[in-house]
Every structure is written in C-alpha cells, then in structure tokens.
Amino acid sequence: MNLKKLYLLALILLTQQVLFGQMYDHTWFTGYDEFPGVPGYGHAQLLFEDSTVIVEQTTLAFNFESTVATMSDKNGNLLFYTNGCSIANRNHEVMPNGAELNPGEISDLVCSSKGYIVPQGAMVLPDPGDSSRYYLFHMGASNDPVRKLQLGPLYYSIVDMSLQNGMGDVVSKNNVLMDGDLGSFTAMRHGNRRDWWVIVPEFGNRTWHTFLLSPQGIEAQAPQNQSLVLPDCEKYMATAASPVGRHIANWGDCKLTVFRFNTCTGVIQDPLEFAAPDHWIPGGGLAFSSTGRYLYATSQNVLFRVDVLAWQVLDTMRFSIDPYNQSPYDVRGNTFHHLVNGPDDMIYGNIPSRARHLHVIKSPDSYFKDDIDFQAQGVKLPVTGVRTLPHLPNYRFNLWFSNPPCDTLGITPTTEAWVGATPQIRPNPAQDILYLNLPTPEHVTSVQLTDALGRIVYISDQWMPSISVAHLPEGVYFLMIRQARGAVFSEKVVVRR
C-alpha cells in the first residue's frame, strides 16, 4: 500500500470523530399517565450523562404508547419530541401545526389518550443543509385482521427551530414519502458524513427503497429487488442499521435477514437469511452492537445473537422461560421486546406489555456469552411505560468500519473533549507487546486495533494495560480508544521485528 493510501486511512480515523460529540439522542421520554394522580403512573425522562443514565419522573405534553422520538441539540439540550400524534417543544407545549400527525383510523382511535402505537414509528434527522431544521420521519398504519397493524404510508414532517423565538414550528406536515404495504424503516449516515439514507422495505423484504436526504431535500432512488430463499413471514417487527455502516437487518416472525449496505451508493445486496428457531414466540427487537460485529434479536421469550463477522447462525443468549430446562441463562419473569442502541454503546430493551423497567445489555461486543453482562430490569422506571423506546439512527456514525469512503466534502472534525490525561503508547514500533498507560481508564468504553485495510484485529469493551501484537504481521495499524461521551484518542501503531 502506498503512502497516499496510508495517509487517507489515517485521515479517515481522525475525521471519524466529526459526529462523536453530537448528543442529539441524550434525552429519552416514556410514560403513560393511565391513572392520573396514582403513584407509579405519569411520565419519565432518561438522561444519558457520561456513563450514567439518570432517570427522573417529569411532566410531559402527552402520553406514549410504542411510538416516541426526541431531538436534542448537539450539546444534549432538548429541542422537541413526539409520540407520533403531536410534536411538543422543550416547554412541553404542542407546537403550532404540531398536532394531527399520521392521519387516519389509528390516530382517531388512540391519539386522544394513548399516543401512536407503531414500534419504531418515528425518527428525527437533522437537515444536512440547515442547522435549524429537522426532518421527522414517521410511519402511519392501518388495522389488519391478521397482522394487527399494516404499516404505511411513511411520512415526513419538517420542524424549523428558528421560528417561535427558538421554540420551533412545524412548517410542513404529513408529506407522504412512500405509500403501500411497508415494513419498519431505518436510517444510515451517508459515507460523505453529511447526508442520510432513509431505508424502508416493502412488506416481505423482497423490494427495498432508499431515499437520500441532502441539502437539496429528499431524493428517491430506484427500488432494489432482493433474491430471498426462505418463505415470507406473516409479520415483520423491526429493521436495524449497523452503527458502523456496513449492514442492515430485518427481523420477522419466521426469520432474520441481514443485507450488506454501501453507505456511498445506498446499494443493498447479498442477503443472508437465518430461520427462526422452534423454541420462540414472535417478539420484535433488533439492534447491532456498537462495532457492528454482533446483531441481537428478540422473541418474547429468547434473546438471540448473530456474529455478523463470522456469519454464524442464531445463538441463544438468554431465555425468559427455558422450555428444555437446560439453559444457564434464564431470566425468569422477564420477557423481551424491542431493542435500541443507547449513546453509551449499550443496548436497551423493553417488554411487550406495561413495565417499570428496561433491560440492558451492558457489553454487547463481548465475545463470550457470560461477558455480555445482560442486566434484566437494569434500568428502573418511576412510572409505567408501554412498549416505548426511541427509534434512533447513529448520530455518531463511525466511518472507520464502513464501506470505502466517499467523503469529498472537506468536513472539519469537531471532537468531544478527552477527559483526563491522554494515553501513552509504548513501544512504537512494537515487537510483541503494546503497552497502554492511562491514569484515568475509568472513562474508557472501547479499545480497538485495526490493520491498514480497516479490519479489526483486536477489540475490547474495557480498558486493558497491554495488547499482544506478537501474532500480527509487520505493518501499520491504527489504535482507537473511545470514552463514554464519544471522545476518541487515535494513534498509528507500527509492528516491526
């Protein structure tokens, strides 16, 4: 590899920090005030501060049932939020023109009291061309006698935070992006680090649609047809995008399908299907680990995992009820439902009914089952939540692991400040052992080493004082150490003998 290519790779590692400091997803809302004035009912907020989740009871503009999206500014200050029926500002008042989202029979039935009932039903993306404007994508639905809910159309509305003295106004609402019988949607950062891909399948996953959100607005791309082998499912519960930009996945009631995704072109290809095991009850959660290596899926009674790097079959992580009485991973009395990536690189999950807790996978990138640190009811809620988790893109898109970069925009990196002393790496060049000295390792959330082609050769979700490089070929490697709030230390490492 010539010096120009090595320089480009080093530049990628440094400029990947462009989004790490952005805290758009640091405030979550939940709660259903089903019995006003009764303890345990009302609303709550989850605030992600460093490696801590602060849970507080609060008073919000409306109730939530499945659908929720919140938006903060890059410093974590709340801007607005929605329950799929209305949009409220940070003072918890419905914005002008902010009511009557997702028009139709479902809204008429639930919006006066509950909130919209579509899981993964809303997501906010910043306008790439105007820092004061935000696109709210939201999925409508209709009643279906077999599937309960038939998804579609997919709408978008636009919030302009420069209006109403900075409190925001909904300047465009319920624009139909795509109609038809759809699956759950998701979004992926474009490889240029500025634009977004909005991704939605037709029901059955055989035809996928991508939309490019850029400063010029939304541009539909040509539909992409996929050749699938296994039969179509009766229901499709979740769609997830890899935080590192390499894959998308869809989870139905009969199979899990994983596709390769090109962040530069929006091309979806190479589907790999995993049939659902016999010992499951349809659920609906799906989330990648922060490095994109592992994909977690849930039924109502089982937590599964796929090693995407090795393309291993579905592996059982936890049972809520073990029908064979053989699993050492029982979490009796708990069920599983939807999953979402937190800004702290952990995965959070809810259950398919009312609950005052969330489950937490604290170390989703751990190789061994015993080390994933699954904490049933790991986050206690002061109020009852009803299947409510935000639907989030990865605002801190990590281009290091993406397809070949296509950044021609010259974006200037902005980085979260590193907490404490910076790491000291020695020796460099290294022969057998690379020693890492850091007086304040408690803030570290991951340590990763890649080769010059971007392939992971070492990864750990905790601080280690040394890394063995004795088995690595001579050459140039890149070390990245990440802290809880997104600050990154990166350095080129040479292995030489």
Question: Would you give an account of this structure?
Answer:
4% of the residues lie in helices and 42% in strands. The chain has helices at 3-15, 105-110, and strands at 27-30, 43-49, 52-58, 69-72, 78-82, 87-89, 122-126, 133-144, 148-160, 169-178, 186-189, 196-201, 207-214, 217-220, 224-225, 236-241, 247-252, 255-261, 268-275, 285-288, 294-298, 302-307, 315-319, 339-341, 347-349, 354-361, 374-386, 424-426, 433-437, 444-451, 456-460, 466-468, 475-483, 488-495. A hairpin with a 4-residue loop joins β30 and β31. The chain has two domains: 3-7 and 415-495, Immunoglobulin-like (Sandwich); 22-401, 7 Propeller (Methylamine Dehydrogenase, Chain H), CATH 2.130.10. The strands form nine sheets. Strands 11, 12, 13, 14 and 15 form a five-stranded antiparallel beta sheet that branches. It has a four-stranded antiparallel beta sheet with strand order 7-8-9-10, with no helix packed on it. The protein has a four-stranded antiparallel beta sheet with strand order 16-17-18-19, with no helix packed on it. It is mainly beta and 497 residues long. The chain is built from two helices and 34 strands.
The helix count comes to 2
- Percent in strands: 35-45%
Give the full name of the CATH homologous superfamily of the largest domain: YVTN repeat-like/Quinoprotein amine dehydrogenase
State the shape.
globular
Query: What is the first-to-last residue Cα distance?
Result: 19 Å
List the defining traits of the structure above:
Methylamine Dehydrogenase, Chain H, 497 residues, mainly beta, four-stranded antiparallel beta sheet, five-stranded antiparallel beta sheet, Immunoglobulin-like
